[in-house]
Write a structure and sequence with these properties.
heterodimer; A: mainly alpha; Amino acid/polyamine transporter I; 0% strand; B: alpha+beta; 5-stranded antiparallel β-sheet; elongated
Chain lengths: 359, 500
């Protein structure tokens, strides 16, 4: 089944889809995840950016070979129907888990700060309802939501001002004071924060100017990388090494450095406002997962979205132990790394198949 | 008009008029008797009378002329006496040729057509001698004169507003754009009311796809009655279920002119004061035409006030609810103390307190707009005092909340489009309830809903929130900040105009 041939995403849409999908809850805990590098973590996001840019190349390449197909269809075409479909099912399950991870993380955060006296069941329910509403508008409407999210949330950078004023600039030096294993550890834990750009393999067929897709997604990717860079930079300036290691959502506490006469806990506003970032990245994932079920069942039905959302709801709400939940979500994070390498495998299969045809 | 040249005068006072079935007069002139009536004549008149049945203000008047007896048939409520005198009776008496030159011939047996002509204000002339039916447009229903606008008044700029007459409204626009490219397509809608509408656009500037779209939507209409253009608007809007108006509605001719020149389409309806302009954007709901008459600095300031005022009015009172119900720690100690002190006597939780006061304001507003003007003032003052002082002293509400609710009520009246200020009031309740449920989290959830809803809306197929990113310089120059007039030459992105 090939996806709809209507091209609807322009350059701006691609930029902000890439950008907003990358920024979610990950960035909030990025400094802690990178804490094995100590103060030297400040510039690591830039390295991540380089890695991400390189891993983006095979994704765009394989997508541009099949201009009207998303990854699900490409899988079926290259790997054969049975194997392709089982891979697709795997991806859908992975996305569902990943989404559950994002939402559960965020709700956990909301419960610790804003809604400490309520259970999270009903808030999660409403969040998912809203998510369905956004996704039902289609990828273009998601892209527009991402765009507006960027412009709404970017003023939050201003609140870093006080952290810089109160911090210690000398924390930034020396620049690269870590060894290989420390870096790999940070990479494993922290790279999750910049994931999201791989979804271009799913919305690529909808892009109008596919030749410039690489450029546009790179712009989006680097906007996010620079935002991550700013956060780690300011965190390093503001916090001590011990704090970096032990404060879970250190970025949230950066807001608290601000002093106003009329407002005390600005972080509560910050974290509730973060819902835009959560929704924008979750919507893109949910849309991709829905496309997955569409391709599995070879039918386009709205209730596919509801099915996935129901699964997410159950994952988040069912009261099994937090350790087990974390394990599950961690597993899905690690699968994400496979997703990054997946296009490489597909590229190899693709070129082998081409050779076969030529022979 | 040379009344003094009349050879014969014809009195047409109501007393003398023969309504329905009065027989022919005895004072027919001898000249007329020279003509022999057509054998079908009496039957035809009888048949018309039968078909027109119980329409009581239909007048049948027999007049002797140089061409024999002529029965003049018209609807009294749709034709002014003066028009009748000048266009029918004087020519009939003196220059009957004129009648033949300006009239249109009708089939004497086509009764539905005859009836249609009569109820649309035309006058029929039946010549008994030749069995001929002529028709002249004498529609001259009473209209009110052009007055100031009460709903969209401005300090600077033209003060005239549309009236309920289609012709007057079109003339108000046409005298502002004296350009042959300004077209108005007439159509009739309403299966029962046969209401006249007119679609105005400037050829060469308007986007033809937009025009086709609006025509298709009007074609598909099967609605019996249109008492106001807002009914038409709700029927042809892209999303009729949304709380947001997706087309601009205005009673100001200068505003319509501006939009027409930008490549939009304006729709006018007979018997309706406002005009629809489409497509429009969300931002344009906050643009008053006065912005172009003010200095650009003042205009920009006012626009920002209106635009951000919309978001403030839906956020202020919900903020109070969520801060006091869920996150008291958000407020600094002194402010919290102050708030708690003012709330110390209040028995209700913040949500009920806010809803209570908001509803009282709604009641005051609604009562104020329904009451006779003289009573309204008094009741307004009494209501204000009751809420402002007595309710606080009675310990029903906190005085800080009075300030917040009053501010947000005032802010809700900032948008120049009244429908938009109604919408802001409705949306505020969604925000208050969600703040009552989940505090700030609920508020942000509602805000995200609002944004995604607005992003999903279309106005005539064009995104209502466009431009999220300004695509054209013109979009940027005339947005929240109004650049100096010299910069505002380009057509906006939403018009999709071919002309730059």
């Amino acid at each position: 089944m090939s996806t709809n041939n209507r091209k609807i995403l322009n350059g701006y849409h691609v930029i902000f889809l890439t950008q907003s999908t990358m920024i979610g809850t990950g960035i909030l805990s990025l400094p802690q995840r990178l804490s094995s590098l100590g103060y030297s973590q400040a510039f690591v996001p830039l390295l991540f950016g380089v890695i991400a840019s390189i891993s983006l190349l095979p994704m765009i390449w394989i997508s541009s070979q099949y201009k009207n197909d998303n990854l699900f269809t490409i899988n079926e075409k290259l790997l054969g129907k049975p194997f392709g479909k089982s891979v697709n099912l795997f991806i859908v399950v992975h996305f569902t888990l990943f989404l559950a991870g994002i939402i559960s993380n965020y709700m956990h955060l909301i419960q610790t700060t804003a809604l400490s006296e309520q259970s999270s069941t009903i808030p999660v329910f409403f969040l998912l309802l809203l998510l369905i509403y956004i996704v039902s508008g289609g990828i273009k409407s998601i892209a527009r939501f991402c765009t507006i999210t960027f412009f709404l949330t970017i003023p939050m950078l201003y609140f870093l001002r006080w952290a810089i004023e109160k911090g210690e600039l000398s924390h930034l030096l020396p620049l690269f004071n870590f060894n290989g294993s420390q870096f790999l550890d940070a990479l494993k834990k922290g790279y999750i924060s910049v994931l999201g750009y791989e979804l271009i393999m799913f919305y690529f067929p909808y892009i109008i100017n596919q030749k410039k897709a690489l450029k546009h997604s790179l712009i989006g990717l680097w906007i996010s990388i620079i935002l991550c860079f700013i956060t780690t930079l300011v965190s390093v300036i503001y916090y001590s090494e011990w704090q970096l290691k032990n404060i879970e959502y250190s970025v949230l506490h950066l807001f608290k450095a601000g002093e106003f006469t009329f407002i005390e806990r600005i972080d509560i506003i910050g974290i509730t406002f973060w819902i835009f970032l959560i929704l924008s990245s979750a919507a893109t994932y949910l849309w991709s997962a829905k496309k997955g079920i569409d391709s599995l069942r070879a039918k386009k039905k709205n209730y596919h979205t509801y099915l996935i959302t129901l699964a997410i709801f159950l994952f988040v709400v069912i009261p099994y132990s937090r350790e087990y939940q974390d394990k599950l979500f961690k597993l899905s994070y690690q699968i994400s790394y496979i997703m990054l390498a997946w296009p490489l495998l597909l590229a190899v299969v693709h070129s082998l198949k081409k050779k076969q045809v030529k022979q | 008009m040379k009344f003094n040249k009349l050879k014969r005068t014809i009195k047409i006072s109501d007393n003398e008029e023969t309504t329905q079935s009065k027989s022919s007069d005895s004072n027919e002139s001898s000249q007329a008797e020279l003509f022999v009536n057509h054998p079908e004549a009496d039957k035809t008149i009888e048949k018309i009378k039968n078909h027109t049945g119980r329409i009581n203000d239909l007048i049948f008047k027999k007049i002797p002329t140089d061409e024999g007896i002529v029965t003049v048939i018209y609807t009294r409520s749709l034709v002014e006496k003066m028009a009748l005198q000048v266009m029918i009776f004087v020519p009939l008496a003196n220059h009957i040729n004129q009648i033949h030159q300006v009239s249109e011939k009708l089939e004497t047996t086509n009764f539905p057509e005859i009836l249609n002509r009569l109820i649309s204000g035309q006058t029929l002339l039946y010549f008994h001698h030749t069995n001929m039916l002529l028709c002249i447009d004498t529609y001259s229903a009473p209209t009110r004169s052009i007055t100031n606008t009460e709903t969209e008044s401005t300090v600077i700029g033209p003060q005239d507003a549309f009236t309920e007459s289609l012709e007057t409204n079109i003339s108000l626009v046409k005298r502002r754009i004296q350009n042959p490219s300004l077209k108005n397509e007439a159509r009739t809608i309403g299966t029962e009311t046969n209401t006249k509408i007119s679609i105005l656009f400037i050829e060469g500037i308007v986007n033809k796809d937009n025009l086709d779209k609006i025509n298709q939507r009007i074609d598909k209409l099967h609605y019996p009655a249109f008492s106001d253009i807002s009914i038409l608007k709700q029927l042809i809007e892209d999303n009729p279920l949304s709380p947001f108006p997706q087309y601009y509605m205005t009673v100001r001719p200068d505003s319509v002119t501006n939009y027409l020149l930008d490549g939009r389409i304006a729709i006018f309806m007979d018997n309706s004061q406002a005009a629809i302009v489409c497509p429009t954007t969300f931002l344009e709901m906050f643009i008053s035409v006065e912005d172009y008459y003010n200095r650009w600095t003042t205009a920009s300031l006012l626009r920002m006030l209106r635009f951000f005022g919309f978001f403030l009015t839906i956020m202020i009172t919900p903020m109070y609810v969520s801060a006091l119900t869920f996150h008291p720690e958000i407020l600094p100690y002194e402010l919290l103390l102050n708030l708690q002190e003012s709330r110390s006597k209040v028995p209700f939780p913040p949500l009920i307190e806010v809803l209570f006061l908001e509803l009282i304001i709604e009641v005051l507003r609604e009562a104020g707009s329904r009451m006779p003007a003289k009573v309204g003032q008094t009741i307004g003052i009494v209501g204000g005092i009751v809420i402002g002082t007595a309710a606080v002293e009675a310990g029903l509400i906190s005085n800080i909340l009075v300030v917040l609710v009053a501010t947000s009520a005032l802010l809700s009246f900032l948008p120049p489009i009244f429908l938009m200020s109604n919408t802001s009031r409705f949306v505020r309740y969604i925000f208050i309830l969600s703040a009552g449920l989940f505090g700030l989290y609920g508020q942000m959830l509602a805000f995200a809903w609002l944004i995604s809803h607005l992003l999903n809306l279309n106005s005539l197929g064009t995104p209502f929130m466009s431009p999220v990113i300004p695509r054209k310089a013109a979009d940027l120059m005339d947005s929240i900040i109004r650049f100096p007039i010299a910069f505002l030459k380009g057509k906006k992105g939403i018009s999709n105009s071919k002309k730059k």
